[in-house]
């Protein structure tokens, strides 16, 4: 949970890829098409792979993500280590099974890479939230037929140098790549996405296991 959660709580994803669907003419058209797709979403479930790289560090993790409006997320990391990162609209919690402490922080104080995931639920307008919005023809998408948008989140210029969104022909976000101002790169890749799934609110509440103490953190990180 490195440096960017504030942005994921401000913004994503894949059921079908219509090869014959009309393609947006420019970055603004593509951004508006993505906004239109996600504005009506209430929840999302997806498997994810998170690849983090920084000078001297390389890490790949994977698991399952659940999102639900407003501002609720549940990241269950399973490989290579079980971890839980959860938000309940007001606070965020981070817990590693087996440890005696869980960490808690106000969402308003969080600076974490997952924050841009609020794009996943259409809570903002890409054209409004990203400076220097453009297509990125120099970036090869993971999936043939996808397009890549490039921009800089206005609210996170101090921590994010560049944001890449890989968008499918169905205007779903398959991938988010975040380049930090500290030369780190975090690459989120999504698959097996289900939209508007029934997720109870209780799924986003953290109940510490017996014997586990919750401590307050100014900033969560993993």
Q: Reading side by side through the largest sheet, how are the strands ordered?
A: 7-8-9-10-11-1-2-3-4-5-6-12
The share of residues in extended strands comes to: 35-45%
Question: What is the third-level CATH name, the topology?
Answer: outer membrane lipoprotein receptor (LolB), chain A
Q: What radius of gyration results from the CA coordinates? A: 17 Å
Q: Which superfamily, in CATH terms, is the homologous superfamily?
A: Lipoprotein localisation LolA/LolB/LppX
- CATH architecture name: Clam
Helix/strand structural class: mainly beta
Uncertain runs with pLDDT below 50, 5 residues or more? 1-21
How many discrete domains?
Answer: 1
Q: Give me the strand/helix succession.
A: HHEEEEEEHEEEEEE
Give the CA-CA distance, first to last residue: 5 Å
Number of strands: 12
């Amino acid at each position: 949970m490195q440096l960017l959660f504030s942005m994921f709580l401000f913004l994503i994803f894949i059921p079908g890829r219509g090869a014959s669907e009309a393609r947006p003419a420019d970055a603004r058209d593509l951004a508006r098409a993505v906004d239109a797709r996600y504005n009506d979403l209430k929840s999302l479930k997806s498997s994810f792979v998170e690849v983090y790289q920084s000078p001297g560090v390389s890490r790949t993790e994977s698991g399952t993500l659940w999102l639900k409006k407003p501002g609720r997320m549940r990241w269950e990391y399973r490989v290579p280590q079980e971890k839980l990162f959860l938000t309940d609209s007001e606070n965020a919690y981070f817990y590693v099974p087996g440890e005696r402490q869980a960490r808690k922080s106000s969402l308003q104080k969080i600076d974490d890479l997952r924050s841009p995931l609020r794009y996943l639920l259409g809570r903002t307008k890409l054209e409004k939230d990203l400076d220097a919005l453009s297509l990125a023809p120099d970036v090869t998408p993971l999936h043939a037929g996808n397009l890549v948008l490039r921009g800089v989140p206005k609210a996170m210029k101090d921590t994010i140098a560049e944001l890449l969104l890989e968008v499918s022909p169905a205007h779903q976000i398959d991938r988010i790549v975040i380049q930090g101002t500290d030369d780190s790169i975090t690459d989120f890749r999504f698959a097996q996405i289900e939209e508007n799934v029934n997720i109870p609110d209780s799924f986003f509440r953290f109940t510490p296991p017996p014997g586990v103490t919750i401590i307050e953190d100014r900033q969560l990180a993993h």
